[in-house]
Amino acid sequence: MNTVYAREDYLGADEYIDVVRKSGLNRPIEDRGRVERMLAHANLILTARQDGRLVGFARSLTDFCFCCYLSDLAVDKACQGQGIGKRLIEETRVQAGGEVTTTLLLSAPTAMTFYQGIKMPNADNCFLYRRKR
């Protein structure tokens, strides 16, 4: 299957919710208004499409020269294992400024082996306040 990767200025809530649901990613998809705000305020969205259908995306917040927070990485479970997630991370890094930009993501416990498998470096100097909902 041919996968087309692209940077998109707009990703609709319906497509986002559909892929989140099909990927198993834990996001507040029952709160459409919150999803719409999440998408409206992201400034870097990379997509993976097969025959025009969204099968994966990476949603980030970045300044394009120093830091990038890759907040969401989701791939439809039916398409996992095709290298789509790895490629979305690579494309995110390039679009966010390449090697001069730090790209950070927080992994769900169930996805740790994926990031270890693609040899993404692990940080031991991270601090955070977790959201309450």
UniProtKB/TrEMBL annotation:
It comes from the Bacteria. Residues 1-133 form the N-acetyltransferase domain. This is N-acetyltransferase domain-containing protein. One of its GO terms (molecular function) is acyltransferase activity, transferring groups other than amino-acyl groups. Pfam families: Acetyltransf_10.
